[in-house]
Amino acid sequence: MVNDPSSVFWLFSSVQTNQQMKFFTLGLLLASLSLASQNAQNQYWEHLDDSPRLDSLISLTDQLLYDDPAECVVISSMVYDLAVKLKDLERQASALQTLGIAQRILGQYDSSFQSQSFALDIWVGIGDSSEIAGAYNNLGIIYDEKGINDKAIEYYLKGLSIYEQIGSQDGMAKAYNNLGIVNKKEGNYEKVLDYYQKSLAIYKELRHSIGETITYGNIGSVYLELEEFEEAIKYSENAIQGYKDLGLDQYVPYSLENIGIAYKGLGDLAKAETFHQRALEQYLKYGNEKEATFTRGSLADILLLHQSYAEAELMAQKCLEDAERMGLLDEELRATRVLYGVSKETGKLRSAIAYHERILSLSDQLSDQQKTKTVEELQVRYETQKKEQAIKTLEAETALNELEIAQTRYLLLTSLVLGFIGIGAIMLINSRKRYKLKAGLAEEKERIQKERFRAVIEAEEKERKRIARELHDGLGQLLSTTRITVSSLEGDEENKKVRNSIQLIDHAVQEVRNISHNMMPNALVSFGLDAALDDMIRKINEAENVQVRISRQEGVHLEESTSIGIYRVLQEIINNALKYAEASAITISIVLQNGFYYFEVTDDGKGFDLNQIKQSSGIGWNNMQSRIELIGGEMTILSKLGHGTTVKFTAPQYD
Predict the structure, then answer these.
(1) Facing residues of 23 across strands?
(2) Measured CA angle at 549 (ends 543, 552), to 5 deg
C-alpha cells in the first residue's frame, strides 16, 4: 500500500544571528522514468487485462509521484477508476492516497484533503489500522503545510495513537518527528525535544541509521533554541559523524553551521568563525548558494564582533549581493546592519547614514511582508473553518431533511392504524426530535462562530505583541543609534540644527515607546495583570484630569491569554469613561469569591441610555461581551442618564 513518503520531514537547521531557524526537508530519492520507457509501457498497457494493467499503473504512480506529480494525478485517477471497476477497495484507497499526495505537492490542498478523506473512509470500512493511521498522518501534513498547526497536531496525534495501539515502531517514529516539526513552528521547544528524543530511541532500537543521524541533527537544532550550547554541539557532532558514515557529506554543513552558532553563544568567536568557514566551503562545494548566503551573513556578524572590519565588510558585501539576487530580505537586512556597524566603527559617517536609511527601508519591507503572510494565514484558517462549518451544517440539514421525510412516510403508514390520536402522538414525538435537532444545529453554529472569534482575537493579540516588540527592539534601537550618529556630526554644542535634530529624534523615541506600550504593555506580558493595571492607572492619574482608584483583596492570578482579554476589556471601559462620560472619578474593584474574580468599574459621569448599545453600529460593547464569554465569564452593564455607569463582569480563577 502507498503511504506518503514525506510523512517524515527530515529537519536540518541553520540558525541566523536573530535565532530564526531555517528548515531543510529531505524527501525520498526516487528513480525517474525516461520518456521512451513511459511510451513503451503505454503501448504495453493497451494489450493487458484489467488486473495486470492495474498493477503496472500502480507501479508507475509510485515512480512518478515526486518526479512528475502532475502526470501522477492523471495516472492515479486511472488507477482509481480501474480499481472501482474491479471492485478492489484496497487499491481504490491506495490510489486515492497517492492522488492526494500528488495534489498536495502541486499545492492543490482542497482536492488533496478530499482525496485523503475518501481514502480514510475506505480504510475505516476495511478496518486496516496501519493504513488508517497513515491517512491521519497525511491529513495532518496537509494542515501542517497550510500553517494550521492546531489541526495538524490533532491529526498527527490520531495517527500516533493508532500506531501505539498496533505497536508500529516505524510509524511511531514518523509521527513523533512530525509532531516535533509542527511544535517547533509553535515555539514549544520542550515538547519538540521530547518528541525527537522518543523518535531517536526508536531509531536506535531499529538500527535505522539514517533516521538516527537526522534526528541527532534535529535535536542539536532544538538545543540551540534553548541556548543549551554544549548539548547542541554534542548532538550536532553525532549527526556529522553519521552523515559521513552514510556517505551523505552534502548534509554535513548544516550541523557544522549549528556548531558554529553554538560556539558563538558560548563566546568563543574563534571557533565559531572556524566552523562557519568550514560550513561555507561545504555549501559552495555542493552548489548550495542559498545556505552559503546565510552562512556569509553569520560570518560577517562574527568578524564585526571580532573587530576585523575589513574582512567583515568584504563578507557582508558578498552576502548583500547574493541576497539581492535571490530576494532574501532577511539576509539583505543583516548584511546592511553589518556594513552600517563597520562604517560607524571606522568613522565613515556618510556611509553609516546611507546604510541606516537602507535598514529602515528593508525593515519596512519585511514588516509589510510579515503582515501579508499573517493575513494570508488568517484567510486560510478562516476559509478552512468556513468549509468545515459548511460540511457540519450540511450534514445536520441533511439529517433534518431525512427526519422530515421519514416523519411524512411514517404518518401516512400509521394513520390507517392508529387514527387521529396516534398521529398526534407521533407528530409530537417527531416534532420534539426535530426541535432537538434544530437546537443542536444552532448550538453547533454558535460554537463554530465562537471558535472563529477566538482565532481572530488570538491572532490579533499575537500581531499586537509582534509589532510592539519590533517597534521597541527594532525601530527604537535604530532611532537611538541615529541620535548617537547625529550627535557626532558636529562637535559644536551650540549648533542649532544639530540640537533641533536631536530633540526631534528624542520625541520620536518617546512616541515609539508610547505606541509600543499601547499595542502590548510590557508589564502585562512580563509581570501580569496587576502590574499592567497599576501602570495604566498611574499614567491616567499623572494627567490630573480624572482620578482612578483600584481596590483588590489580593493579586489577580490568571493565564496570560485571559489576563490579556481582561486588560483589553478594562482598557475599553476606562477609555469609554474618559472619552464620553465626562467623569471626574473612576473606581475599580476586584474581589475573589468561590473560584471567580468579580470585576466592577464605576464612574461618576453623565451615564447613557442602555438602548444605545443595541442601536449602536460600533463593536466596542459587543466585542467586550464576546471576550468575557470566551473566557467563561459574564458581563452586566448598568447606566442611567445623569447617574454614571457601572460595568460588572466575572472571570474564572486560574487553577
Answers:
(1) 13
(2) 145
- Give the burial string for 415-428 (b: 16+ CB within 10 Å, else e): eeeeeeeebeebee
> Mind listing the pLDDT tens digit for each residue in 574-595?
888 888 888 889 999 999 888 8
CB environment 258-294: b (16+ within 10 A), e (fewer): bbbbbbbbeeebebbbebbebbbebbeeeebeebbbb
The pTM score is 0.50
From CA 363, how far away is CA 336, in angstroms rounded?
Answer: 11
Task: Please tell me the distance from the alpha carbon of residue 82 to that of residue 441, in angstroms, as a whole number.
Answer: 39
For the chain, what percent of residues have pLDDT higher than 70? 67
Q: If you ran DSSP here, which 8-state letter would residue 470 be given?
A: I
In the block, which residue shows the cell 549527526?
239
Q: Indicate the helix (H) or strand (E) that contains 26.
A: strand 23-26
User: What is Dmax (Cα atoms) for the chain?
Assistant: 110
- Residues 195/180, Cβ–Cβ less than 8 Å: yes
Extract long-range pairs of 77-81: CB within 8 Å, 24+ residues apart: 79/54
In 3D space, the residue among 175, 217, 17, 30 whose CA is nearest the CA of residue 105 turns out to be 30
Residue tagged 488533496 (cell numbers)? 112
pLDDT at 46: 46
Cell 482612578 belongs to residue: 548
- Report the C-alpha gap between 297 and 568 in whole angstroms: 40
Q: Residue 43: is its pLDDT beyond 50?
A: no
CB contact at 8 A, 137 and 155: yes
The answer to whether residues 252 and 215 touch, using CB atoms and an 8 Å cutoff, is: no
